[in-house]
Design goal:
By secondary structure, the protein is of the alpha+beta class. The protein has two domains: about 30 residues; about 90 residues, Sandwich (Immunoglobulin-like), CATH 2.60.40. About 25% of the residues lie in helices and about 40% in strands. The chain contains one helix and nine strands; from the N terminus they run H-E-E-E-E-E-E-E-E-E. The strands form two sheets. Strands 2, 3, 4, 7 and 8 form a five-stranded antiparallel sheet that branches. Strands 1, 5, 6 and 9 form a four-stranded mixed sheet that branches. A hairpin with a 5-residue loop joins strand 2 and strand 3. This is Secreted protein. Keywords: Signal. It comes from Streptomyces graminofaciens.
Length: about 120
């Protein structure tokens, strides 16, 4: 009986070590993917925008405001967002007023420190 208890305990320790080791690298790898966002617009109007979402420290924050020139791009520099999560993209054109939409930052096709492109019409 004592031998069976030792075998079960040893199996539990091995399983815990195996599964714990497998889970840790995935978590650390995902946490390392933080990106800056660049918004490109096809509009003939100036677009004003800001973001709300999880930053590189996993804090929920709002960014400052930026503007995109007509048919141009603007990088939201100085702010880093978590890949694999969504951000709230708040934007305004003079003809439509303020709107917002969730935008997913894919973790599959980006690397840590990259600039990730989002588009608005």
């Amino acid at each position: 009986m004592r031998s069976l208890k030792r075998r079960v305990a040893a199996a539990a320790v091995v399983a815990g070590a195996l599964f714990g080791t497998l889970a840790v690298p995935g978590t650390a790898y995902a946490a390392d993917k933080n990106v800056q966002l660049r918004i490109c617009s096809g509009s003939t109007e100036t677009v004003k925008f800001y973001f709300v979402g999880a930053n590189q420290y996993d804090d929920w924050v709002g960014s400052r405001f930026w503007e995109i020139a007509p048919k141009g791009c603007t990088t939201a520099e100085g702010y880093w967002w978590r890949a694999g999560r969504s951000v709230e993209f708040h934007h305004r054109k003079p003809s439509t007023g303020w709107r917002w939409e969730p935008r997913l930052i894919s973790a599959n096709d980006t690397r840590n420190g990259a600039t990730y492109d989002l588009w608005i019409g």
